Structures are given as C-alpha cells and as structure tokens.
Amino acid sequence: MGDFSREDMVVTERAALVGWWLADGARLATWEIADRVGLKLKSTYHMMYKVARAVPIALDDEGKWHRIDQPLTKRVVRVR
Questions:
Q1: 72: which DSSP letter?
Q2: Residues near 29 by Cβ (< 8 Å), separated by ≥ 6?
Q3: ∠ at Cα 24 (54, 58), nearest 5°?
Q4: What are the pLDDT tens digits along the chain (80 aa)?
Q5: What is the pTM (predicted TM-score) of this model?
C-alpha cells in the first residue's frame, strides 16, 4: 500500500484502493475490505455504498463486492 500505514490513509485513498482492487477483478466481503483499509465495518459499508453510486460495483447475495459491468472481450472496428 505504499510507504505509509493504513491508519494514515484518508477516505479518498481507501476508496481508491478498493476501486483498484475491484477493477482488477477482486471479489471482497465488506469485512475483508474493512480489514485491508483499516476501517470499522459500519464505516466500510458507508464508504462502499458511496463508491457504488459513482462506479459500477455491487454487493451480491454472497456478501461480496465486485464489478457489475462485463469486460469487453472483442471489439470490432471498421477500417475506412
């Protein structure tokens, strides 16, 4: 996470890290996120619901946060 402790991070840094992990394909429970970024569970839920308003992530039935968009696997480009 860099050369500073997780306790020194501000919420923007925590949200950015979680966004990076989820964009990379991670599926994380709220407690796992809380543990990784140094927040209490309630604060983590609050952060994640705020993040979910801005980026395509969701909490599924198994209690895991993950990307909800499908990655583009094939692109067709017309050549003129």
A1: P
A2: 63, 64, 65
A3: 40
A4: 556 677 788 989 999 999 999 999 999 999 999 999 999 999 999 999 999 998 889 998 899 999 987 544 444 444 55
A5: 0.77
- Map out the domains of the chain as residue ranges: 6-67
CATH value of 6-67 in 3.90.180.10, 3.40.50.980, 1.10.10.10, 3.40.50.720:
1.10.10.10
**Closest CA relative to residue 36, chosen from 25, 44, 46:** 44
Pairing status of strand 64-67 against strand 28-29: antiparallel
Phi and psi dihedrals of 20, rounded to 5? -65, -45
